[in-house]
């Protein structure tokens, strides 16, 4: 299955960039969406997933230059943390619009070609907080939990067309986002992780690449944690 056309949303840094690199190293033709300029080594398409027009333009360019998207990794996401009582409605709705509705937009655009081809892989990037919750993250946790119901429903819709839909659920990963955490908070997190460390983006990327592989052809509707054991029991 090498040589497929892969699109990774939010592929300019962190987990998204690691995922794009893993597919590229496997011989696939990889495009990434970015709102922060070109990403070296990849076809980069400007795309804000909150805009249906942006999504359409991004897919049109990928299809023109590489071909129909055969593997979609929906990774683009934002945070706007805060306690519920002080959270403005815009902070709640903006996170849902990017993380959940934005995923709907890109997945809906990708599936029509996959259905016709009778093959495809869709991987959604959720989070350990989707099931365990996180104080100060009601918006983020709600958006990431929504991806699970979305994926499992879609897996039932598309299974007959040999399109798989899975969720990869990372825990705490060494990225720019976690690098700014206060040291005390980092130590609290590490104390709760049975493996006693954060993941590297590459460790998440290899799991994403596996569930999109031929070897995982009978895996669909799954939620796969990559969290060092943090979410056990949820």
Summarize the structure.
With 234 residues, the protein is of the alpha/beta class. The protein has helices at 14-25, 52-65, 89-117, 129-132, 138-158, 176-179, 183-192, 201-211; strands at 5-8, 29-34, 43-46, 71-74, 120-125, 163-170, 223-226. The protein is 45% helix and 15% strand.
Characterise the protein shown here.
It is a single chain. With 234 residues, the chain is α/β, with parallel strands linked by helices. The protein has one domain: Rossmann fold, CATH 3.40.50.720. Helix content is 45%, strand content 15%. It has eight helices and seven strands. It has helices spanning 14-25, 52-65, 89-117, 129-132, 138-158, 176-179, 183-192, 201-211; strands at residues 5-8, 29-34, 43-46, 71-74, 120-125, 163-170, 223-226. It has a seven-stranded parallel β-sheet, sandwiched between helices. α1 (14-25) packs across α8. The longest helix has 29 residues, at 89-117. The radius of gyration is 17 Å and the shape is globular. The model has no long low-confidence stretch (mean pLDDT 95).
């Amino acid at each position: 299955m090498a040589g497929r056309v892969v699109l990774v949303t939010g592929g300019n840094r962190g987990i998204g960039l690691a995922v794009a690199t893993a597919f590229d190293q496997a011989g696939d033709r990889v495009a990434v969406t970015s709102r922060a300029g070109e990403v070296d080594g990849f076809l980069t398409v400007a795309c804000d997933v909150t805009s249906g027009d942006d999504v359409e333009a991004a897919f049109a360019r990928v299809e023109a230059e590489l071909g129909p998207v055969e593997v979609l990794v929906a990774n683009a996401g934002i945070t706007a943390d805060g306690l519920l009582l002080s959270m403005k409605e815009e902070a709640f709705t903006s996170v849902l619009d990017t993380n959940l509705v934005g995923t709907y937009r890109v997945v809906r655009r990708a599936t029509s070609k996959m259905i016709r081809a009778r093959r495809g892989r869709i991987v959604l990037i959720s989070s350990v907080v989707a099931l365990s919750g996180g104080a100060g993250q009601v918006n983020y946790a709600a958006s990431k939990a929504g991806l699970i119901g979305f994926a499992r429903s879609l897996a039932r819709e598309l299974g007959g067309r040999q399109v798989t839909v899975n969720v990869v659920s990372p825990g705490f990963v060494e990225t720019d986002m976690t690098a700014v955490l206060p040291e005390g908070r980092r130590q609290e997190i590490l104390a709760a992780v049975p493996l006693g460390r954060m993941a590297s983006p590459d460790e998440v990327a290899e799991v994403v690449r596996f569930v999109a592989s031929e070897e995982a052809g009978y895996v669909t509707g799954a939620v796969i944690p990559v969290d060092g054991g943090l979410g056990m029991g949820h």
